[in-house]
Amino acid sequence: MNHRSFTIRNRKDWDEYISRAYIHEGFHTWYYHSLNTEGEPLLFVYEEEKLFIALPVIKRKIESSEYFDMTCVYGYAGPLSSVPFTSLSALTIAQFKAEFTIFMKAESAICIFSRLHPFLDQYHLLENIGGIKDNGTTLYVDLSISEEEQRDRYDKRLGRQIRSLRKMGFIIKEADTAQEIEDFAEMYYRNMDRLNASSNYYFDVQYFINLLNEEYMKNKLILIYDGVNLMCGALILLSDAIVRNHLSATSPDYLNISPSKLMTDEISMIGRRMGKKIFHLGGGVGGKEDSLFNFKKLFSNLQVKDRIWCYINDEPAYNDLVLRSGVEIDPEIPFFPLYRHPKRKAQTAASEPETTTI
Questions:
Q1: Which positions ≥6 away from 322 have C-beta within 8 Å?
Q2: Could you tell me which of 189, 22, 36, 50 has the C-alpha nearest to residue 114?
Q3: Cα 8 versus chain centre, distance
Q4: What percent of the chain lies above the pLDDT cut of 90?
Q5: Which of 26, 65, 60 is nearest to 40 (CA)?
Q6: What is the total count of domains within the chain?
Q7: Cis preceding linkage at 337, omega within 30
Q8: Among 96, 123, 122, which residue's Cα sits nearest to residue 1?
């Protein structure tokens, strides 16, 4: 079977392949990858006569070494294909793996971490390439059922609270000025401060502006006002079939009435009006069934597995870096790659980029 593989670094060719994929999201585009500041965006492509597999990654330098590693963007990315992954033959998967290991070696990349897309069956391609690990479950709302049936599935108390919030006359609108984006960003930062969020959850104002101005990503910033006071906001991402709340925040002055419940219900209605099939709620922090998970579960108990992919292409180099970092090689430690662990030696950690938690 004739096949070839190559690496794309330019927008035109990258997005041409993404647009031809069986299913894709804004997370997979060149533009979304270009917003990442950790390293260089790359698209690895494996191609046969009638199909292709494309894997978007971020190539990061490993400080104090000659090596790099690969990671994913913030969100749900992983590989794409021109056909459903479940229809790929064993031979195609084997040839993809062989070409992918050559790509990793050519880029001096010793390992890769990627969060997988819960609705794309990517594990079918990757389950024998490194390790697929469960990362809890992720929740979603089925927008193909009627609006009445959707709301009947809400927690009963939640349904009453949403009806009460809708009667209060709050203004729900889509942001249409730069000032509104800046106001949302400021509220978002205050939320992250209150939650003691890690640094990788902080994005500058330009990041929000870029996500909303990009022509290839039909995103929206939805705001809820109490008169002139901004009380809640959500930056929602839209793909052909899926809507999701990407980043959201609530003013501390309104936490007691939980306007985020009204916002979540409103996002589902926006998705319906736009013909989307799934409202992806996401899961808890780090895949845990925490307070965030339980909040989302009030809207729906529909769940799919959340998975991550970890693959080491150069075991000796990887083990040497872990040894130098001072972190014990332990399969029970839920962190990858281990040499980026927060407890690594201070002299190594001082100059390295943000770590990746499983």
A1: 329, 337, 338, 339
A2: 36
A3: 21
A4: 80
A5: 60
A6: 2
A7: yes
A8: 96
In a domain, 356, yes or no: no
Question: Distance (Å, rounded) from C-alpha 83 to C-alpha 50?
Answer: 9
The amino acid at 319:
N
Q: Are residues 235 and 345 in the same domain?
A: no
Supply the CATH number for residue 48's domain: 3.40.630.30
**Could you give the CA distance from residue 53 to residue 24 in angstroms, rounded to a whole number?**
12
Give the H or E element holding residue 54: strand 52-61
Of 90, 12, 92, the closest CA to residue 51 belongs to 92
Q: Which two tokens stand for residue 203?
A: 């994005």
pLDDT in tens, 217-255: 679 999 999 999 999 999 999 988 999 999 999 999 999
Domain carrying residue 193? 139-305
CB 165 within 8 A of CB 261: yes
pTM of the model: 0.88
Q: Which two tokens stand for residue 240?
A: 């052909």
Question: Are 229 and 313 in the same domain?
Answer: no
Q: How confident is the model at residue 41 (pLDDT cuts 50, 70, 90)?
A: very high
